[in-house]
């Protein structure tokens, strides 16, 4: 990529720039908003999905540049990121118009919208042409992904989605010849599946007509009016006369239940209708089975709500929510097995033919939720206790998901007796059962009282077993995270540290794990090192050389955690001796004093001071030989946090004494 160019290019015209840190933070927030898919798009679905993937790659770039905290980024990068902010903002608005605007009008504008996406991709490519990538501190993976995005943008050729063009042609044909059979199928394909959907579409078309009145010309407004006529015709012929009669009767003859009265948790995020068969996908979100099945069948492999990739396509029944819905429907005489209309006509009893619905009792709803979770937890614990391995695997997974939903759920799962069974399953020998069980325990341990119950169930040895020899990296990571959570209780720092295999297993994960595993291991070791007797065990397990290596491991990204662990084990003789042996640590710490985070600078000065005190003359002399050390320490003494300034002053006094041979350092 070009290193630099003149800034007179048209795409660089910008009247003002945000401060660098604020600009990057704004880019990260904006890019994540674009990538978060809150609802399914019925038009330009493939184009929108592809554009979101491109913005996701840019989000990785923004995050890494922001986390590098480099004070010497080239000025041209500020211009590039400012322009990228403008481009990403326009991407967000265009995607929003596809998702929230009139579906039929967007379909008629297929080629225009496709061209708008094309132009935005080419603009991204032009900005990346001049982004000084080699001057940015990036991981190799991110650098390769950005270069790939750049090459794709340069080669990208305009083409409208053939499927969208066919649907546009179908719409044009329907506008000229309203075939009732084709009309029903077509409206369903664009997500217009109820009278409420049609009413919303008409409202959006009317807004679009007003918007286009001054700019679009007569033909444009005429086309929009024809679309309004088509939707009104569909309301008459696609939906049954009975439904229309009921809707009219509801508005005039009864006080009915409205969509606003249906609890939001009962609605499918895709269709916005009340769910009939709620299921959980691998991301943990709940959808109506039919809606999410259609979403997956259409080729999507991400969660519509969170945009997380679906690691599997199993649809797990949400028994807790379904039980709650059934109770609510029974109380309000709603048939759960029929689609909920905007306004439902309900029979209340034989003695009273029609009766208005009372406002929802939220206290009763809360109690119903509690009862449903409790019943589900007991049901799943029964599966853990008596089920086959397949049943246990499914039950452990459902408990894992249920334990994510809140503190009350975690409490009730424990009260149902799940913890001892989950602990036992940690030695089942089945990789998926073990991973689900340890992850469920990790989620349960967020509730403080459950920490005590988990340890009382004898979990430490079994969790250590997973940490040491778990068959999946995910299981080992979550075992380390569970140990970290348990060590939030002071007395468990002692009992876990006393386990002969726990600390060595964490150190092994520090060496073998991926970035998440190394982070979990490092944070658990930091907690354990707060207890003095554990420090020597951590050093004896070989943690110090690994922690020093992690200071320069950009992929692991746990510099501050590694520094904190080093500063803690420095408090024992074994740790101090091991740290002083390193010949590479002093220059690394000096660089971290210059470029590290505030927390990293505090830990770095703590380690340097500890190395130089009490017989650390040789380290002091090495430090003085580094031409950057004194200016870095002086800068921290002037501008650092209160704790950092105090330790920097102490180190400067020590180094000052080292300059005079007659005075001990």
Automatic annotation (TrEMBL):
The gene is LOC111487470. It holds the Pfam family ARM_PUB. ARM repeats lie at residues 417-459, 501-543. Residues 261-335 form the U-box domain. One of its GO terms (molecular function) is ubiquitin protein ligase activity. This is RING-type E3 ubiquitin transferase. Pathway: Protein modification; protein ubiquitination. The keyword Transferase applies. InterPro entries: ARM-like (IPR011989), ARM-type_fold (IPR016024), ARM_PUB (IPR058678), Armadillo (IPR000225), PUB12-19-like_N (IPR057623), RING-Ubox_PUB (IPR045210), Ubox_domain (IPR003613), Znf_RING/FYVE/PHD (IPR013083). It catalyses: S-ubiquitinyl-[E2 ubiquitin-conjugating enzyme]-L-cysteine + [acceptor protein]-L-lysine = [E2 ubiquitin-conjugating enzyme]-L-cysteine + N(6)-ubiquitinyl-[acceptor protein]-L-lysine. Gene3D superfamilies: Leucine-rich Repeat Variant, Zinc/RING finger domain, C3HC4 (zinc finger). PROSITE patterns: ARM_REPEAT, U_BOX. It comes from the Eukaryota. GO terms for biological process: protein ubiquitination. Its EC number is 2.3.2.27. Keywords: Repeat, Transferase, Ubl conjugation pathway. It comes from Cucurbita maxima (Pumpkin). It is an enzyme of class 2 (transferase). Transmembrane segments: none annotated. The keyword Lipoprotein does not apply.
């Amino acid at each position: 990529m070009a290193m630099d160019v003149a800034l007179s290019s048209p795409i660089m015209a910008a009247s003002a720039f945000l401060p660098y840190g604020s600009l990057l933070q704004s880019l990260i927030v904006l890019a994540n908003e674009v990538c978060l898919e809150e609802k399914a798009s019925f038009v330009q679905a493939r184009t929108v999905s592809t554009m979101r993937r491109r913005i996701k790659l840019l989000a990785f770039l923004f995050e890494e540049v922001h986390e590098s905290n480099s004070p010497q980024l080239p000025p041209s990068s500020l211009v590039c990121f400012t322009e990228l902010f403008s481009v990403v903002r326009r991407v967000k608005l265009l995607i929003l118009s596809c998702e929230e605007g009139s579906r039929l009008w967007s379909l008629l504008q297929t080629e225009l919208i496709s061209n708008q996406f094309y132009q935005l991709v080419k603009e991204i490519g032009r900005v990346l042409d001049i982004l000084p990538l080699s001057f940015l501190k990036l991981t190799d993976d991110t650098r390769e992904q950005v270069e790939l995005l750049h090459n794709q943008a340069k080669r990208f050729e305009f083409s409208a989605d053939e499927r969208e063009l066919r649907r546009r042609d179908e719409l044009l044909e329907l506008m000229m010849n309203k075939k009732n059979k084709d009309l029903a199928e077509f409206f369903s394909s664009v997500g217009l599946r109820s009278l409420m959907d049609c009413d919303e579409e008409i409202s959006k078309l009317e807004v679009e007509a007003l918007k286009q009145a001054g700019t679009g010309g007569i033909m444009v407004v005429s086309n929009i009016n024809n679309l309004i006529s088509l939707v009104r015709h569909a309301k008459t012929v696609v939906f049954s006369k009975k439904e229309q009669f009921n809707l009219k009767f509801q508005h005039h003859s009864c006080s009915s239940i409205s969509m606003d009265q249906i609890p939001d948790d009962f609605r499918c995020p895709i269709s916005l209708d009340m769910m009939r068969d709620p299921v959980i996908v691998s991301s943990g979100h709940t959808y109506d089975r039919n809606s999410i099945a259609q979403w997956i069948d259409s080729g999507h492999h991400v969660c519509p709500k969170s945009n997380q990739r679906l690691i599997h396509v199993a649809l797990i029944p949400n028994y807790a929510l379904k039980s709650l819905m059934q109770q609510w429907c029974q109380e309000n005489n709603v048939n759960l097995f029929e689609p909920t209309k905007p306004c439902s006509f309900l029979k209340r009893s034989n003695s009273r033919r029609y009766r208005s619905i009372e406002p929802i009792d939220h206290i009763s709803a809360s109690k119903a939720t509690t009862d449903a979770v409790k019943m589900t937890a007991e049901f799943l614990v029964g599966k853990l206790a008596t089920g086959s391995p397949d049943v246990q695997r499914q039950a452990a997974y459902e408990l894992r998901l249920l334990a994510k939903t809140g503190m009350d759920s975690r409490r009730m799962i424990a009260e149902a007796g799940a913890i001892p069974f989950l602990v036992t399953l940690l030695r089942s020998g089945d990789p998926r059962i073990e991973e689900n069980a340890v992850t469920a325990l990790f989620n349960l341990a967020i509730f403080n009282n459950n920490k005590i119950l988990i340890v009382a169930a004898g979990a430490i040895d079994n969790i250590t077993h997973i940490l040491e020899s778990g068959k999946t990296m995910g299981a080992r990571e979550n075992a380390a995270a569970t140990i970290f959570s348990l060590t939030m209780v002071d007395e468990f720092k002692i009992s876990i540290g006393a386990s002969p295999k726990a600390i060595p297993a964490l150190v092994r994960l520090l060496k073998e794990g991926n970035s998440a595993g190394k982070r979990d291991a490092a944070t658990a070791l930091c907690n354990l090192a707060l207890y003095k007797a554990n420090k020597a065990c951590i050093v004896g397990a070989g943690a110090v050389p690994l922690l020093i290596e992690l200071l320069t491991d950009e992929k692991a990204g746990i510099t501050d955690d590694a520094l904190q662990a080093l500063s803690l084990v420095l408090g024992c003789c074994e740790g101090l001796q091991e740290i002083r042996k390193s010949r590479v640590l002093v220059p690394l710490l000096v660089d971290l004093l210059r470029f590290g985070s505030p927390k990293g600078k505090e830990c770095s000065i703590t380690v340097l001071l500890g190395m130089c005190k009490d017989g650390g003359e040789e380290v002091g002399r090495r430090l003085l030989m580094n031409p950057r050390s004194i200016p870095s320490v002086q800068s921290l003494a002037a501008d650092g946090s209160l704790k950092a300034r105090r330790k920097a002053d102490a180190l400067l006094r020590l180094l000052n004494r080292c300059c005079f041979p007659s005075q001990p350092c």
